[in-house]
Amino acid sequence: MHRRRGCGSCSAVHEGQRYAHASIEPEQGLHADGVGPGGAPLIKECLANIECKVIDIIDKHHIVVLSGVAAYVDVARKERRMVHAVGDGSFIVDGRKLDRRTMMATKLPPGV
Description:
Layout lengths: L1 H7 L9 H4 L4 E3 L12 E3 L4 E11 L4 E11 L9 E3 L4 E4 L2 E4 L1 H4 L8
Antiparallel strand pairs: 1-2, 3-4, 5-6, 6-7
């Protein structure tokens, strides 16, 4: 989980090195804007990936609106637990809550 968090919260300054920094091997998605090869990178180590395209950005509320264009599942994978980000620096692993607020503090808005 630490590797995925490191990749997901990597700043744009390190964009070119985000996968190497997190020791993650990306694979190329199939859809570029939903129409052919060359899409978003997928995280090979994850059970599932959703390839999305940005359809709107609401600057006032810091919201990025996405549209899913493809979903991928590694059916051969033995480890099936999933990690879900709650958004306040904590995560849930199939029902068990992990508190990572200290680790995520620099990424959270004030008061969260």
